[in-house]
Amino acid sequence: MTKLDKIADDSELEPANVKMRLDRIKEQVRAYEELNDELALLVEPDDEQLAEFESLQNRFYAIATKVEVIVSPITPLSVSRLNSTSLPTDGTRRLKLPVADLPKFKGDLEKWLSFKNMFLAMINSREDITNLQKFIYVKNCLEDDTLNKILVYDISEENYETAWKLFLDSYDKTRILIVKHLAAILELPVQTKATHQGLTRLIDDMRQHLNMLASMNVKPDEHLLVRILKCALPHNIRSKWEETLSLDISPTLDQLYKFISETAFRLFTIEQDSSRSKQEANKKRPFFGKAQDGAKIRRGEDGARTLMTGTSSNCLVCKRENHFIYQCREFQNMTVQQRWDFVKKSNLCKNCLRTHSGKCNSWHCKNCRRFHNILLHNEASTATASRDSRKSDNVTDSRSEVNSE
């Protein structure tokens, strides 16, 4: 463009010569803008790159306007035509849609037709890219052994058609493809358990194989397809399907598709409700987790967590650290009555053997299921403790009656 700018200032140069040079630069600018658009979809440009691109565009339009003045009369119509049709302005450039991910192919014949159709539509049929670019695209789509088939050719403009033909000769085998898709339908995996995900995948697989066969002008018998798909259903779903059928009219494949889709949706709703119920039940269940210094975290019915510790970091029996009372050797060596006496004297919870406020949510005695620790379990002592508790309650009630009088 710098050279063209200098030439445009030369009044002795033929206008036709200048116009030819401008046309050549127009093509280069168009190609540059399209490549820049494609690059922007892959890597987001920074401010410096955007400024550089805008500067180049502005410079091109300025030089093109100068050349247009030389080769044609200066009229508003000329300038308007220059801006609206001759030059690739932002308003007239083709809108660039987001580029879809190119398909990948590893050699699986069941996926060959899908890959081939997508590649033909997205890359091979395009006229705005060169064969060299198409060769690079197809190379990037191949993986594993499939890539080795075209690596025998150098990546060049001339070798693309030959490499693509070799690729077609290797995988585009109609009879083999038909056999593959028919076998996949006949061998649909039987669903042993009715789940939303399993039923959805079942009909998706069936549709995919039938679509591939249809692209090769193959249409299997519908009665056979209904039978195959029905046999792949879980037993309970198969029974429900039979209940919907008439004894005289054969169902269609679309009817079976609809039944499976609706069943899958109902299962999805049930699975969601079941998941929420489990989460709510887990919140209400007492939870014990580890905390610092051997303490425990208890989650009550409201879901709130409470840190449970003793009144001291030392054992109240032996005055040593790093264990609870129920782990203490001295406490374990006491008689049951001595343990009861110590618990009462120390104002400990008889259920968890700790001090805390509020209701105790620890497990009760494993032997009798009563509200005391298993280390305090003794038939005689338990009975005595129960009588003492009832006496205490009676005294409290009597005092309450006297006070009320």
What is the topological layout?
Blueprint (H helix, E strand, L loop, with lengths): L1 H7 L6 H28 L4 H25 L4 H11 L25 H13 L6 H11 L3 H6 L9 H12 L2 H13 L9 H20 L6 H10 L3 H9 L9 H32 L2 E4 L5 E4 L5 E4 L20 H5 L2 H10 L33 H26 L1
Antiparallel strand pairs: 1-2, 2-3
Helix pairs in contact: 2-3, 6-8, 9-10, 10-13
Pfam family, one: DUF1759
InterPro entries: DUF1759
Describe the strand arrangement of the main beta sheet, using strand numbers.
1-2-3
From the alpha carbons, calculate the radius of gyration and give it in angstroms. 41 Å
**Pattern of helices and strands:** HHHHHHHHHHHHHEEEHHH
Tell me roughly what share of residues is in helical segments.
Answer: 55-70%
User: How many β strands by DSSP?
Assistant: 3
Weakly predicted, low-confidence segments: 73-97, 287-312, 395-405
Q: Could you describe the largest sheet, including whether it forms a barrel?
A: 3 strands, antiparallel
**Distance between the terminal alpha carbons, to the nearest Å?**
111 Å
Question: What is the total number of structural domains?
Answer: 4
Structure in words:
The protein is mainly α and 405 residues long. The model is unreliable at 73-97, 287-312 and 395-405 (pLDDT under 50). Strand 1 (287-290) and strand 2 (296-299) form a beta hairpin. It folds into four domains: 2-86, no CATH class; 109-172, no CATH class; 177-283, no CATH class; 290-404, no CATH class. It is flat. Helix content is 59%, strand content 3%. It has helices at residues 2-8, 15-42, 47-71, 76-86, 112-124, 131-141, 145-150, 160-171, 174-186, 196-215, 222-231, 235-243, 253-284, 329-333, 336-345, 379-404; strands at 287-290, 296-299, 305-308. A three-stranded antiparallel β-sheet has the order 1-2-3. The longest helix has 32 residues, at 253-284. Pfam families: DUF1759. Residues 382-405 are annotated as: Disordered. Residues 387-405 have a biased composition (Basic and acidic residues).
